[in-house]
Write a structure and sequence with these properties.
The protein is α+β, with helices and mostly antiparallel strands. It has one domain (about 5-85). It contains three helices and three strands; from the N terminus they run βββααα. The protein starts with 6 loop residues before the first strand and ends in a 5-residue tail after the last helix.
Length: about 90
C-alpha cells in the first residue's frame, strides 16, 4: 500500500490533520485529525510502500507495545485510511 498523491499531514492550530491538496484530492472535502501515534504511523507510511506488518514493526520500535497490539492498532488505522480513500 501507499498514501495517495495529494494527501499530506499538517499541523493546524496545534492539531495534526490529514488534508487533501491539489487535483488528486478534489473529492476529499474533509480533514482527518490524528493523535500522536497515528501521526507517527502516517509519517512512516509516507516514506513509500508499506504494509500493516512494516508499520507495526516501526510502532514497536518507537513505543513500548506488544507485536500483537501493534498489529491490531495498525490494522485499525489503516482500515480507516482505506475507508476514506487516502491510501491505495
Amino acid at each position: 500500500m501507499k498514501i495517495k498523491n495529494g494527501f499530506v499531514l499538517r499541523d493546524v492550530c496545534g492539531e495534526k490533520v490529514i488534508m487533501g491538496e491539489g487535483l488528486g484530492a478534489l473529492d476529499f472535502g474533509r480533514l482527518l485529525c490524528l493523535n500522536d501515534t497515528a501521526a507517527f504511523l502516517w509519517n512512516e507510511a509516507s516514506q513509500g510502500e508499506f504494509t500493516v506488518d512494516s508499520l507495526a514493526e516501526k510502532l514497536c520500535q518507537e513505543y513500548e507495545v506488544s507485536e500483537a497490539q501493534a498489529k491490531a492498532d495498525v490494522s485499525a488505522i489503516v482500515a480507516q485510511w482505506q475507508e476514506v480513500k487516502v491510501v491505495e
